[in-house]
Design a protein that fits this description.
Blueprint (H helix, E strand, L loop, with lengths): L6 H13 L5 H31 L8 H21 L1
Length: 85
Amino acid sequence: MRVTLPGQLADLVKRKLDSGLYASSEEVIAAALELLELRDKKLVSLREDIQEGLASGAGRIFDDAVVEDIKRAGRERLAQRKKTG
């Protein structure tokens, strides 16, 4: 496959090669594509999390009452673990 990069990207590849971190332009492009793939996977996961949150129903204001509910739930879980563990 042959790819022509615009000047700014070609300069970036050259700088990466000049840094000595990469042995070839193919390595630079492969690293960039791996990062792109990772970013895309994170975006998919984030979108799924957002949809899950939206589907979970109405939220509530995060205040002292919420903090106390979280603490209470944590204490209950800890007590259950101590009973079964």
